[in-house]
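>> received
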Amino acid sequence: MKQFISWLDDIFTAVKTVADGLAVTMRYWLSTYDPQRRTYTEKFEYPELPVPVAARYRGFHRYDLSTCIACDQCAKACPVDCIYINKERVEGAKGFRVDCFAIDYSKCMFCALCVEPCPVDCIFMGATHDLSCYSRDGCIVDFSRLPLETAWGRATLNPTAVAQSKVIAEPVHGGPNQ
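>> returned
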């Protein structure tokens, strides 16, 4: 009999705890309910129109391949090692040719520590907030293989451009010394 009473007491405590939690949830829901509130896509017309972001928003990077000198300062400053740079020395001239400038966005924490050490300001944080993909391979963006307008930061970085860049066999630009 003592076990039965203890069991009923445990059930009562569990039901009371759930009811208290639901009461708190309902109280906050009723106090913040707005019948005039619209859905996110009604308010911002996403994805047709870009979502407004704050001026100092740290979105997906913009990278200007034409000014990069392949100094590796951004890759050295990255705390999570998500920036990969392959470069080759240009024969008969000074400097390097950038074969690959890739950022793995599955690792990137958008801290902007890669922006400050760049001596020629070729990498900076953009305003793009969405780069949806269905696989982890889609999270690796090789800026040297993107279309020129996108790689140079003049067009938006989007999943379609990233997917098309993985089809290209050669880099689209030889670097600033070519």
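>> The first strand starts at residue 61 and ends at 63.
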